[in-house]
Sequence to fold (407 residues):
Amino acid sequence: MAKKKTPQELIDQLTNPVWNPAIPDYKALYPDFSNIARILDVSENTRKIMEAMTSSSTLIDLQKTLKQTKEISLASEYVVNKKDRSVDIKDVNKDFKEGKLVLVLGAGVSMTYGLPNWQLLLQKLMVTTLNKKENSSLIAELFSFIFSPNPLIAGRYLQKYYDENEILFEEEVRKILYKEIDSMKESKLMDEIVKFCIAAGKSPNLNSIITYNFDDLLEQNIDKLKMDLPYKSIFGNGQEILPSDLPIYHVHGYLPHKGDLTELNRITFGENFYHQQYGDTYSWNNIVQINKFREFNCLFIGTSLTDPNTRRLLDIANEQRFERNGSHYLIKSRYNREYIIKGLTKWIKENDKEAIKEEQFDEFVQNLTDLIEVFEENDLLSLGIKTIWIDSYDEIPTILSNIRIQK
Fold:
């Protein structure tokens, strides 16, 4: 077991990110939390897997290695049982009944309503900065496609542009965010999340919600019920929460579709805001996340958990938890088999590798898929998170319903 860090060491870890020049782009600004390094810390078995795979010089060797490493990895104590979700659902239901469950929501929760993804949002914002309006949309799309600017760096440029032109950045983001949204569209996933909120202040009881989304779609759906549900959207310092309120923490900022925007509505979008999060140990959003990750059990929905700051905060909270072998859960889609086959076929052609026999190809793909998923499970477990695998996004509402109503 790793040595438990002192409070001062944890504060140092939070305030002093490690610079790593080997990591490209914005990742160099943050601690080296790359998947491979993390996995090597988690399991001796996965260290052996990495050594075996890096020593494979041909696809035939790799096929043999995959068979061996699959057996090693699937026997690992760290691997979650993929076939039976009932144990996981029972555990999360217990947390819910005891008032210890926190829902953590990512962009996947809001996509049903037509909100733009990061790439499209950046493109639309880029259009507004171009002086020549003719073909500006096409130019922005081509720029994004060819150069693929990092979202943090692009956000920094956009923030600077709007500041220099005395335009409220958050107002422009809000216009684009809600321009093509269909807030009346039915979403079984959102319906299930709202049903968790109805129990606020009672038993069973949801402790709180953390959302990384700017939008107020959750709040709109709660209001649609026309019930007196006590909730409070929190997006800055000094906002009072009553004991009867269900807190909805917008830790990356909040842009409601109506009403005036104030200084509290600043959003975490560009590189400079991520720097502020690293520099301010006691910022309200860092403190909220560390507290919830440490004291309660979280169910992550609609997020890939690749954000470096979120992973860092999970690491810090996990250091302070009594139980460190997986107290949180992430609902995650399995890898698409056809996507892997397409990518593997392309890689074989481009690298002039010896082809695998047709009768062995399916087995090779399955072994590769299993191994990738095992690596991801181990990575998440090192953050204190167990994986609930799904084959389709449509399964999530049923899982949430089972968690909520299980006797």
